Amino acid sequence: MKQRYNFLLINPWIYDFAAVNMWARPMGLLKVAEFLSSYNVTLYFIDCLDSFRIKRFNMGKYPKEPLPAPPILKGIKRRYGRYGISEHEFLKKIKEIPSPYVVLVTGIMTYWYPGVKRVIQLCKEVHPDVPLILGGIYPTLMSTHAEVETGADFIYTGRVDTKLLAMLESIGIKLEKATEKRPYYRLGFYKRMGYAPLLTSEGCPFRCSYCASGILWREFRQRPVEEVLREIEELVEIGVRDFAFYDDALLYRREEHIKPLLKGLRKILQRLPSHRRPRFHTPNGLHARYLDSEIAHLMRETGFKTIRMGLETVNPERQRIIGGKVYNEELRQSVAYLKEAGFKKEEIGVYLMYGLPGQHLEEVWEGVKFIMRLGVRVYLAEYSPIPGTEDWRMLVDKGVIKEDIDPLLTNNTVFSLLFSGYSEEDIKRLKDFVLEYNRAD
Ligand code: SF4
């Protein structure tokens, strides 16, 4: 009989000033679990973020334990803390799991590394001799930092593939194919599956100057529509009610992808009783350029409830400089299509960045007013630079940041306060204004 190896997979806590669960799951780590599920392994899983108070549409607020901010963030007048399950709960879970052969930890946002570090520290206290591999977006973007700071034995960069098998073999674990690959939602990791993120594609055909998509995914690939529909049906069967599309470019190549997908969805919905009909959300922002009248109507018919689109700035010159993914007229037109299809202000939101390099606050106010004139919600997003991007290089070259800056300083809350050049009062005035506008009918 083949030997079976116990693998422990962990999604760490978030350490930050603010965090809300908008249908998130550690998709990269779950892809690793799916990949490993066809080998001679027994998978154990701890998601430190699988705890939140449900608000609307199965979204929710994570429990927060206030913690002293790291010394480098001392001047920031916000409450820092750890989001997710308690340490006590984490230790209880890890001690209940049979001795693993290897521990795999994921790191997502670079500035959440204190959560990764703490998880690794606790793992090492419980299983000092078990090799620990850290993978995910954070070590892919900042491998040297992850190597020096986290205490992980091995750093895995990039997407999951046979490279992982080679790394495991180098530490004495030779995996062999044992069965068919299973989707993460069939692996028994989550007791309650009220929501699920969906990724119908990998990567993005654009290369915006501030975005890491092109670093994480060299190519843009869309999954077969039939496969995505099957996944949605299976998830509905196990009780999922809310789906969040996390694609970077969901509407790209619309005739071959999103339109057949929505039409297929429409057929599935016709077979479901109304109480089991799912709701759909696009928290990652859609490309307004590709949203036409047919898509808007299909989205309405298939139960989209939260539609977000990215504008980022209203300044056409800056729109061109950062990558040209959308221009004002395209946004205006797409909002008109959505409204014509029946969507209301509270269902449509547009992301607008503040603190972009060289951006004055007046430009942000102009953007707010432009979106208000369209009669949809405004979602402000603080700019923060990501290692490896064009913006990062430009900010390093100009001496605004150092190449080896502590990622904690690139936290979106922190970066905008320290580097945008706007005063705290001005930012507060802007945020309060937007909050009030969004609340009004
Ligand atoms: S379009 Fe969006 S996902 Fe694509 S590169 Fe630009 S910001 Fe990133």
Overview of this structure, please?
The chain is α/β, with parallel strands linked by helices and about 450 residues long. It has 2 domains: about 170 residues, 3-Layer(aba) Sandwich (Rossmann fold); about 210 residues, Alpha-Beta Horseshoe (pyruvate-formate lyase- activating enzyme). It is built from 16 helices and 19 strands. Strands 12-15-16-17-18-19 form a 6-stranded parallel sheet. The protein has a 5-stranded parallel sheet with strand order 4-1-9-10-11, sandwiched between helices. It has a 3-stranded antiparallel sheet with strand order 2-8-7. Strand 9, helix 3 and strand 10 form a beta-alpha-beta unit. Helix 13 packs parallel to helix 16. The radius of gyration is 22 Å and the shape is globular. The site of iron/sulfur cluster has 10 residues, from loops.
Helix run count: 16
Strand content: 15-25%
Strand order of the largest sheet: 12-15-16-17-18-19
The radius of gyration is 22 Å
Q: In terms of structural class, how would the helical and strand content be classed?
A: alpha/beta
Low-confidence stretches: none
Shape field? globular
Oligomer: single chain
CATH topology of the largest domain, by name, is pyruvate-formate lyase- activating enzyme
Main β-sheet, in a few words?
6 strands, parallel
State the separation between the terminal residues, measured CA to CA.
66 Å
User: What small molecules does this complex bind?
Assistant: iron/sulfur cluster
- What is the overall pLDDT average? 96
CATH class of the largest domain: Alpha Beta
Whole-number tally of structural domains: 2
CATH architecture of the largest domain: Alpha-Beta Horseshoe
